[in-house]
Amino acid sequence: MSRENDETADTGEILWGAKAIAEEINRDVRQTFYLLEKKLIPGKKTGKMWTSSRNQLRRYFAGEDA
Fold first, then answer.
1. Distance linking the first and last C-alpha atoms of the chain
2. SS3 14
3. How far apart are CA 41 and CA 3, in angstroms?
4. From the centroid of its chain, how far is CA 13?
5. Which residues pair with 14 in a beta bridge?
6. pTM
7. Cα–Cα distance, 3 to 56 (Å, whole number)
8. In the predicted model, is pLDDT for residue 62 greater than 80?
9. In the chain, which ranges are continuous DSSP H helix?
10. What is the residue-averaged pLDDT of the chain?
11. Do residues 53 and 14 lie in contact, with contact meaning Cβ atoms separated by under 8 Å?
12. Are 46 and 27 spatial neighbours (Cβ–Cβ below 8 Å)?
């Protein structure tokens, strides 16, 4: 398995739920739901739960992900 696949398989990289995402981006849950629903930050809905990658969020806020 390549290093890239190892990182993707690491569930520590994936943030499960708006609360976890909110904590990562230092916003409240309500603001985070808005940002996710309007697709203003990287994330997707998995069933009824929002998920996002910690690395994608960091790249996005660093201006590396357009």
1. 29
2. strand
3. 26
4. 9
5. 53
6. 0.76
7. 17
8. yes
9. 3-9, 18-25, 29-37, 54-61
10. 85
11. yes
12. no
